[in-house]
Amino acid sequence: MVRPTASPKTDLTLLHGTTLSRARQIESDFAFRRVAGNDVWFVFRSNRDIAEFFARRRARQEGGQPALLIAVVEDLVFQSLRTSGDAAYVPFDEADHELLRGRRQWVVTSAGIEKLNARWIDMSYEELSKVT
CA-CA distance, 92 to 83, in Å (whole number)? Predict the structure, then answer.
């Protein structure tokens, strides 16, 4: 008799574009600090250009240095957020920048962020140049 084997654990890498100071704080706390009712968006590594776009836009708005927050979570944890409705894959507004048209982002509710804060596997950040 062949026994079923457990599926291998897979991790997801989520990217979030922000300022360097905010990325350092989140990484230091190993948690996102959010006001109730605010959502947080992420993209997967394959959509790094979107995260970089938002990091540079936020840095321009705030006069800071752009950075990517790189957060790793177990795939099953993220899938549970999708099932519970705490993570949704939503399109960008067509009125937004042309880079974003026809593309999507993961939007995680504040309740979902609380769940993720308890389950992050790893968190780091990467400083970006201000150019482009």
Answer: 21
Ranges of the chain whose pLDDT falls below 70: 1-8, 34-37, 131-132
User: What pLDDT sits at residue 1?
Assistant: 52
Question: Domain-by-domain residue ranges, the chain?
Answer: 11-127
Cα 8 to its chain centre, rounded Å, is: 23
Strand order in the sheet with 122-127: 87-91, 104-108, 40-44, 11-19, 66-74, 122-127
| Angstrom distance (rounded) from CA 22 to CA 128 | 13
SS3 15: strand
For residue 70, which phi and psi values (nearest 5 degrees)? -115, 110
User: Contact 45/52 with Cβ under 8 angstroms?
Assistant: no
Compute how many other C-beta atoms are within 10 angstroms of the C-beta atom of residue 109: 20
Contact predicate 79/116, CB 8 Å: no
Q: Phi and psi (nearest 5°) for 43? A: -130, 160
List the Cα angle 55/44/52 in 5-degree steps: 20
Q: Are the beta carbons of 26 and 122 closer than 8 angstroms?
A: no
